[in-house]
Structures are given as C-alpha cells and as structure tokens.
C-alpha cells in the first residue's frame, strides 16, 4: 500500500470538529458541558449523569500506562504522630492517640509533564499522603497550591487537554507557555485565582522538603456524637516554604532534571528527615454561610487570618523506597479512601474525583485488584465477597461469595457503627436535577486580588515576569489580549505590567476594589533556617586548613551540607597537610545546584580555575543567593565588584565569618541586591 492509498483509507476517520454542535460519543446532542448533574445547585453529583461519566471515563483511559497527570513523581515512607487528641472534632482512630505512630507513604509530583520531564518546571505539585491506619487506608490527595483551576470535575478533561502538549505537534513538554492553555484560561475565568498561584514562586519550589501541601477540597470531620465540622487540611514544612528563581529553575532542568527527587532521596539518606506539621482549618456547620466566599468552592481558600490553622501533628519521612516502580509507580491514591470520622462535602470537583480515581486505576494498574499490590495493601485485614479479576493475589477459601447467606453464617457481615462500620454523614439533600452552578460560586476575582495584595514587592515582580514569559510564548495575539483584559479584573498594575512586555494593549479599566490581604500567603513570612541547605565550597590546593576546617565544622553543626568543588576530583591538600575530598569539578557541578557558594580559593589557582570560579560567583549573585569568601576568595569578590553587596559575607575572623555566613544562608535570598 502506498502513502496515497493509506491516506485515502484514513480519510474516513478524519474529523474536523470546528463549527459543529457538541454530542456524546453516541451522537446525542449535549445541552450543557460546564456543569455536572446535581441534586440542587449546591447538591451532590448524581450517578445518572451519563454525559459526565462518559467524558470522565474516556479521559481517565487516555494514557497507557503512565498517569495522565502527576506522571513524574517521587515518594518516600514515613510516620505520622499526633500532638493532641481530636476527639472533639472527629472519631478517626489515627487522630485520637498521640502515643501512636501511623505509617505513611507520600508521593510528590509535577502535574503536566510526562514521566521523563524535568522536575523544576513551572507547575503545580502533587502532595499525596497514604495513612496506613488500623481502620483502613486514608488518602489525603492534595497539591502544593490550596485552590484549583476549575469548580466542577466535568471540566477536568478540558483543563488537562489544554495544559498538555498541543496535539498537532506534541509541544511543549511540561509547560503551560502555549496557546491552548492560555486560551482555556481566558475563556474559563474561574481559573483566575489558581493562575495567580501558578505564576507565583509557589510553582517553582526549591525542594519537596520546603513545599506546603493542601487538601484543596472542603471535607467533613464527624465526631462520635455525629456532630460535623467543615475541614481543610494543610501540611506545613518545618523548614519553611521556599522557591527557586525562574532563571535558576530553567537551568536546573538542564543541569539536573532529577533535582527534586535527588534532593529528597539524599536528605533521607543523610538523616535530614523531611518534616511537615499537619494543620486543620475548622468551620462549624452553622457558620457555613458566614463568609464572603462559598466554603465548597475549590477555587477559594479560607484565609488563615479568618480561619486559623490548628496544628495537630507531625509527619516525618524517614525511608526511601526500595523500588520506584513497585512503590512509587504502583501506589494508587484516591480521595474516596476514608476512615470513620472523615467524610465528604458537595464540592463538585471533589464529587467527580470520587468517581475518577478508581476508574483511572482500573486501566493503569490492570484491573480491580490494585488494592492487593504491596504498597496499596492496608495494614488491617480486609474481608468481602469481591472475587477474581486481573491481578488477584488473595486465595479465597469456601464456597460462599455473596451476601446474605446461610452456608457461611451470613459472613462476612456488615459492622455496626459501634463496631467501627463506616456510616456516611446524614446530610439533608434535596433539589431539582439541574446542570448549573450556584450563584455563590461566581466570584472569580476577589481572592485572586487578595493573593496579589498579599505578595511582597519581589514576589509581585516575579508574577509579572512569569506572565510575561508565558504569554510571550503564545502566538495568538487575540489570546494574549484576552488574558490581559481578564487579569485587569485582578489588578491593573499587574495586567499593565505584562501587557507592555508582550506588546498587548494595556487595559484602561477593570480594577478590583478588594483591599484585603493575607500575610500567610507570602513566602516572605515563612520560616528561615540554615538546616539542610547545600553549600558549594570552591577550594584549591594549599588552603589555610585550620581556618577553613573551622568554618566547615560550624556549617556542619548547623546542619548545612557542604560539598567541595575544584578543578579536579581527588583530594586537595591544605597548608598543614590536611586533605579534603573533592565532590565535584566545575564541569560536573553548577551554582544553580547549591543554595549558597563559599569561595576559599587556593594558591594553585590558574586562569581557568579563576574563570570557572567567577562564573559560579556571578551566577549565584544573579540568583540572589548568599556568597561567602575567605582568604584568596575575598580577592575574587573585589574583582567581580560585589564585595559590599547584600548577602555577600567575607572576613578574617573565622568565627565571626561562620556566624554571619550561616545567618545569610538561612535568609535564602537577597532581593534588594542590584542585579544587572
């Protein structure tokens, strides 16, 4: 068959959807594609919504075998320990006894890229935790951003299709800087708040260890008396929340595309176990309508100043996986994996996820028995009448596999609530079957403005730069202008700032009148610690060994990881014969892979050595990082004209230098530095 014949054969399958009316795969015309079918405007999604199920099922099965989203992930084992009993709010067993340690498995991930993509791209990050409790597995499946792009799960396939590489050329990989993504944003303006987060420094985290996690949705805590509270979950990193700068993130993608997984793995191997405190925000049911936002809207957060975060426990990740495929790739999370005392709300995005996750695992893991894979098995026994299927591990004995029965004394039998049986919260639900959205969901810009108001000046500048980069890659002038006009509703300075950068018409009106801010949203207010920071030490032969060793010891005492960089691997000998092992050469390392640079130098420094050192110094300086210099290194600061800049530490007294340099490392960035 020649090429023309093949094209003729394929012609009957080519379809141009432009200008056509939407239908189901059965040809039925669709009257509404924005909203799932619900029992009342704020009610739960109905199983009879065949359009939603067809659309979501098709989407869930679009990729084989990697995850459609969150494909690029890395994970670790750990434990969760409770600070105080939560009996007042929930009967969940693992939230009752502070003396118990609950095993956990956590998977971090990017959202948009494939399994082979780089890890420091601009993207939301998954933060999924599986608690292996005595009552069964509980999965808290969240992100490092507390809100989402859309309000109804029926639009999730559309969102991901827009984010993913464009189908005509499969470009770009793991990036949103392209036409279809921004066309979706401009025409689905509920995404405004999430986009502000995605364009902020939160979307380029320094490390999984320095990244917040959020449950995103509103859930319910239910106590032993049946009283419920609305709840949102937070993971607060003990090291604080820190980010890369954009130029640095791009360069790391080339220098070390495994940067985040390497960082997590090495930290655990070094005994620097990542720690996160679990916090909850709680709202009484009677206060459901007491706020200027709908508590069920997944594009809204609960400002911490209005609804404080109660810290209730700590998770410590203390063991790397033994096999990435068997554990990280085969783990199956699901927001519907709950335990007594934790229940759902009518958040329409959450309602759709409760269907989608099981459906996805069926094809990705080969059938209905994915729960029997070792990483997914609960620590408590499980008994039911489900049998057979792909990948069955259990060998069930006996002749009975149904309920009710007399041959096995009616077992396995349901458990009463007193025996630990799960009982759904008895929320009253009523309403007409409708495809619509509650009026309370229609404010798309006020919290996006609040986020902008909450940022420091450097953070605001970074957001403008992010919009300028992303939209600078968009080819459609119309889409560019639509986005400019859309974000004028958030803040005029913001919209004008990136409009000028991309050559669009600056908006003249649309400014928000929202003045509220939330200091908790700015990373300027996060914890700042030197512990586990990585410092590149540039060193040559014949260095002043006693003094340099004293600085290295001071760094070690504060938990700072120092790695030696020179022109050759092997050992460098100091002035008194002390030898230091070189970890990297200038060829195998780069300043973007370190949090700070300490320049010692050495008397054998040749022109190439000096040139390579200058590159490290200047790049670290341009990324606002701390730079320390002693001995010969001080001359190089002067040669590069940065000696007196903020965050540049030098001195002759090694104790004073070490103390000042450690303080500088804790600060992380020096935004008031003049970078050309």
UniProtKB/TrEMBL annotation:
Residues 1-20 have a biased composition (Basic and acidic residues). GO terms for cellular component: cytosol. PROSITE patterns: CATALASE_1, CATALASE_2, CATALASE_3. Residues 23-411 form the Catalase core domain. It catalyses: 2 H2O2 = O2 + 2 H2O. Heme binds at residues 67, 107, 156, 353, 357, 364. Belongs to the catalase family. HPII subfamily. Decomposes hydrogen peroxide into water and oxygen; serves to protect cells from the toxic effects of hydrogen peroxide. This is Catalase. It comes from Jeotgalibacillus soli.
């Amino acid at each position: 068959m020649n090429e023309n014949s093949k094209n003729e054969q394929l012609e009957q399958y080519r379809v141009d959807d432009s200008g056509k009316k939407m239908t189901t795969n059965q040809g039925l015309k669709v009257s509404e594609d924005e909203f799932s079918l619900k029992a009342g405007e704020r009610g739960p999604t109905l199983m009879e919504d065949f359009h939603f199920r067809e659309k979501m099922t098709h989407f869930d099965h679009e990729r084989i075998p990697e995850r459609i989203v969150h494909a690029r992930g890395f994970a670790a084992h750990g434990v969760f320990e409770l600070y105080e009993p939560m009996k007042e709010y929930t009967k969940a067993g693992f939230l009752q006894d502070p003396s118990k340690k609950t095993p956990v498995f956590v998977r971090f991930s990017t959202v948009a890229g494939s399994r082979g993509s780089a890890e420091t791209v601009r993207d939301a990050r998954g933060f999924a935790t599986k608690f292996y409790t005595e009552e069964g597995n509980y999965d808290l499946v969240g992100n490092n951003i507390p809100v989402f792009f859309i309000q109804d799960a029926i639009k999730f396939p559309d969102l991901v299709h827009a984010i993913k590489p464009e189908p005509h050329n499969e470009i770009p990989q793991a990036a949103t800087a392209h036409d279809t993504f921004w066309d979706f944003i401009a025409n689905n303006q509920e995404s405004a708040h999430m986009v502000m987060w995605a364009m902020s420094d939160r979307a380029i985290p320094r490390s999984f260890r320095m990244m917040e996690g959020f449950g995103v949705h509103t859930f319910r805590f239910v106590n032993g008396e049946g009283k419920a509270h609305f709840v949102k979950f937070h993971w607060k990193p003990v090291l604080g929340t820190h980010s890369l700068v954009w130029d640095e993130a791009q360069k790391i993608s080339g220098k070390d595309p495994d940067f985040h997984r390497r960082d997590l793995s090495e930290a655990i191997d070094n005994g620097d176990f990542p720690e996160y405190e679990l916090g909850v925000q709680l709202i009484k049911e009677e206060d459901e309508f007491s706020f200027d936002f709908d508590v069920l809207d997944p594009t809204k957060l609960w400002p911490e100043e209005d609804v404080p975060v109660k810290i209730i426990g700590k998770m410590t990740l203390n063991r790397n996986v033994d096999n990435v495929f068997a554990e990280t790739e085969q783990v199956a999370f699901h927001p519907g994996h709950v335990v007594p005392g934790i229940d759902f709300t009518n958040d329409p995005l959450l309602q759709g996820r409760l269907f989608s996750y099981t459906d996805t695992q069926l094809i990705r893991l080969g059938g209905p028995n994915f729960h029997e894979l070792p990483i997914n098995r609960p620590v408590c026994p499980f008994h039911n009448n489900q049998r057979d299927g792909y990948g069955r591990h259990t060998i069930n004995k006996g002749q009975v596999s149904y309920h009710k029965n007399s041959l096995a004394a009616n077992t396995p039998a349901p458990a009463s609530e007193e025996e630990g049986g799960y009982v759904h919260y008895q929320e009253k639900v009523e309403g007409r079957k409708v495809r619509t959205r509650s009026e309370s969901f229609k404010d798309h810009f006020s919290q996006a403005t609040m986020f902008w108001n909450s940022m420091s000046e450097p953070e605001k500048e970074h957001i403008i730069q992010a919009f300028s980069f992303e939209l600078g890659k968009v080819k459609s002038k119309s889409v560019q202008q639509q986005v400019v006009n859309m974000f004028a509703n958030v803040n005029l300075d913001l919209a004008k700032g990136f409009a000028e950068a991309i050559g669009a018409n600056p908006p003249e009106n649309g400014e928000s009148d929202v003045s509220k801010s939330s200091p908790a949203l700015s990373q300027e207010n996060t914890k700042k610690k030197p512990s586990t920071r990585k410092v590149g030490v540039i060193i040559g032969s014949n260095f002043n060994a006693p003094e340099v060793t004293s600085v290295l010891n001071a760094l070690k005492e504060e938990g700072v990881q120092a790695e030696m960089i020179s022109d050759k691997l092997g050992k460098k000998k100091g002035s008194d014969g002390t030898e230091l092992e070189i970890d990297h050469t200038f060829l195998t390392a780069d300043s973007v892979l370190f949090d700070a640079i300490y320049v010692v130098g050495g008397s054998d420094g040749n022109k190439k050595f000096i040139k390579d050192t200058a590159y490290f110094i200047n790049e670290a300086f341009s990324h606002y990082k701390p730079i320390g210099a002693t001995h010969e290194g001080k001359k190089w600061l002067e040669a590069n004209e940065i000696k007196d800049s903020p965050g540049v530490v030098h001195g002759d007294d090694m104790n004073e230098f070490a103390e000042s340099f450690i303080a500088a490392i804790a600060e992380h960035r020096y935004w008031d530095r003049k970078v050309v």
